[in-house]
Design a protein that fits this description.
A hairpin with a 5-residue loop joins strand 5 and strand 6. The longest helix has 10 residues. The chain has 93 residues and is of the alpha+beta class. The chain is globular and about 35 Å long. The chain has one domain: 2-Layer Sandwich (NE0471 N-terminal domain-like).
């Protein structure tokens, strides 16, 4: 991935799984279920309505949610790109 690659698209494949696209043409699936299951700051994403409120940061460098306390929770583009490349994902499963 180019250090300049920015997130340009994000859709929910199913709860806990996002399909993310970057401006260099790469697109992949990112499974966040294990992260959500660990709880902590990401625990609120186990709620489907909260997970659905994902947004691309203005600079394209992260995906962002706002937690119930109003705090910004984010996954950076590099972390997402690594997760997207780890394995193929069947969105229909």
């Amino acid at each position: 991935m180019s250090a300049q690659a920015k997130i340009v698209a994000c859709t929910i494949a199913r709860h806990g799984v996002l399909q993310v696209g970057w401006d260099d043409g790469y697109s992949g699936f990112v499974d966040l279920n294990c992260t959500m299951e660990r709880g902590g700051v990401y625990g609120f994403l186990a709620d489907a309505a909260a997970f659905a409120k994902v947004a691309i940061a203005e600079d394209g460098r992260s995906l962002v949610w706002i937690d119930p306390d109003g705090d910004r929770i984010a996954f950076g583009t590099e972390t997402l790109r690594v997760r997207a490349g780890k394995r193929a994902f069947d969105a229909a499963a």
